[in-house]
């Protein structure tokens, strides 16, 4: 990747205190980042929390890239976008924060393939989480440098790469000034509810990383790119499970004879979900105070691994998490069925949520970018396509597995979470459909594809990681995979 690292832009990320060497493993093999970057550290308690278990020996430098990009997004027709006189030109340059992650990687490739100029910003800490907890993706994942090099080789398109931490405002400022984004897609948050509930340090990290990182993005937009459109990944988990219909962000109520439209009440169920609520409030405030334009995508549970772009080459393959910390229900059930492990239904299994295919995630983000919010507007889209209970998912996987000759069993396990296991759930999700979303609904053929994918890689499954091992009620009890 010498051609990616040949420029003179050096960005810094910090840490402090005592240090020892950190050499993460990718696909079970030790690797080093020293040939790519050096990391200088800050004095924040945040960094002490993160690297408490993996102290750094010496400092190493983060070398960010500023690769020339020649791809230009196609002109969007006026029918596909609301373009008012006070709006900026159609976005061409899109910064994807967290672009090395599950949703971020698929989105970065999709946007690049559609002709947008794309930059990935990531501190690669998601890979460190796997290293710390003894986890691994079902699929082999190439390094971010090899991924980007492969994308260039396959398509001829360049994705710029900035390695660093958005909680470091100096780094983020230099990145904004270097890339000058028209839109920022923000996936750069710790995204696991169980991870946030492991212990105090991880709860603190989740809140600090997510809330402070988002605040830094908002300040960077205000200071350097005022017309930039923020597309922020939220979560349907902000709403909880109220006994009334869930609207898209806002609800009109009448109280004591007076009527108003207010933000929909939030009932978060973990420190992770609470961080998303804080993000939404901060974004809404800065839209009102500073005139920022923002779209909050309250996403449901995502399943699947394939998009048109990740199918182009094996090195472009996306993550597939199945463990009890980062794995989501449908992906986890498919892996369990493939290896002959009973499907683990938490409690009564009546927990109902919104779900969507990873192909619809990238489609929704593209629609939000192509149809930007107005200056000062804080939009909320509920981003999912179907609703299922856990029991319904287990039944669907059981039927699909039987067609493939699998003997699929289901067991109820004690629910590690604090949540209603039987409840009313009816969430609205019309705004993205109105913008043109064409959903990929969960079908028998898709379930067959997911199961066959899990069967293909079943030799990589670590069955010790399947059962839930993080309890909402026993804070401080670490997963069994974490060394004492």
TrEMBL record:
InterPro entries per UniProt: Epimerase_deHydtase, NAD(P)-bd_dom_sf
Domain annotation NAD-dependent epimerase/dehydratase: ranges: 94-382
Tree of life domain: Eukaryota
GO biological process: glycolipid biosynthetic process; sulfolipid biosynthetic process
Pfam family, one: Epimerase
GO cellular component, one term: membrane
Region Disordered, residue ranges: 72-91
GO molecular function: UDPsulfoquinovose synthase activity
Family to which this protein belongs: Belongs to the NAD(P)-dependent epimerase/dehydratase family.
Protein name according to UniProt: NAD-dependent epimerase/dehydratase domain-containing protein
């Amino acid at each position: 990747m010498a051609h990616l690292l040949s420029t003179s832009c050096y960005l810094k990320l910090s840490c402090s205190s005592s240090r020892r060497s950190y050499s993460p493993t990718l696909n079970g093999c030790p690797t080093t980042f020293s040939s790519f970057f050096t990391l200088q550290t800050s004095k924040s308690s945040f960094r002490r929390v993160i690297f408490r278990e993996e102290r750094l020996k010496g400092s190493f430098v983060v070398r960010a890239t500023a690769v020339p990009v020649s791809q230009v997004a196609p002109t969007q027709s006026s029918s596909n976008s609301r373009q008012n006189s006070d709006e900026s030109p159609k976005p061409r340059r899109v910064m994807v924060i967290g672009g090395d992650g599950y949703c971020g990687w698929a989105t970065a490739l999709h946007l690049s393939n559609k002709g947008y100029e794309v930059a990935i910003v990531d501190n690669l800490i998601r890979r460190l989480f796997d290293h710390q907890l003894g986890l691994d993706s079902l699929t082999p994942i190439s390094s971010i440098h090899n991924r980007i090099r492969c994308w260039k080789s396959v398509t001829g398109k360049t994705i710029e790469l900035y390695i660093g931490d958005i909680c470091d405002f100096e780094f983020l400022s230099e990145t904004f000034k270097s890339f000058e984004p028209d839109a920022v897609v923000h996936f750069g948050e710790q995204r696991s509810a169980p991870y946030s509930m492991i212990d105090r340090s991880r709860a603190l990290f989740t809140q600090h990383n997510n809330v402070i990182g988002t605040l830094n993005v908002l300040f960077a937009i205000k200071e350097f790119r005022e017309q930039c459109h923020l597309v922020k990944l939220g979560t349907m988990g902000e709403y909880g499970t109220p006994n009334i219909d869930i609207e898209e962000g806002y609800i009109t109520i009448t109280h004591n004879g007076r009527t108003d439209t207010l933000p929909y009440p939030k009932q978060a169920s973990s420190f992770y979900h609470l961080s998303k609520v804080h993000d939404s409030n901060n974004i809404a405030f800065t839209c009102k105070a500073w005139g920022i334009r923002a779209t909050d995508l309250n996403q449901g549970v995502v399943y699947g691994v394939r998009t048109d772009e990740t199918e182009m080459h094996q090195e472009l393959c996306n993550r597939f998490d199945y463990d009890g910390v980062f794995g989501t229900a449908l992906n986890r059930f498919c892996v369990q069925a493939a290896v002959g492990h009973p499907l683990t239904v938490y409690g009564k299994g009546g927990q109902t949520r919104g779900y969507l295919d990873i192909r619809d995630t990238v489609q929704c983000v593209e629609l939000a970018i192509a149809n930007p919010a107005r200056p000062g507007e804080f939009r909320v889209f509920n981003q999912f396509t179907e609703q299922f209970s856990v029991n319904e998912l287990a039944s669907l996987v059981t039927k699909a597995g039987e067609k493939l000759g699998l003997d699929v069993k289901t067991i109820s396990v004690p629910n590690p979470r604090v949540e209603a296991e039987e409840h009313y759930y009816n969430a609205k999700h019309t705004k993205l459909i109105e913008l043109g979303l064409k959903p990929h609904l969960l079908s028998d053929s898709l379930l067959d594809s997911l199961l066959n994918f899990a069967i293909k890689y079943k030799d990589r499954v670590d069955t010790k990681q399947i059962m839930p091992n993080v309890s909402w009620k026993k804070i401080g009890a670490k997963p069994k995979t974490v060394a004492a």
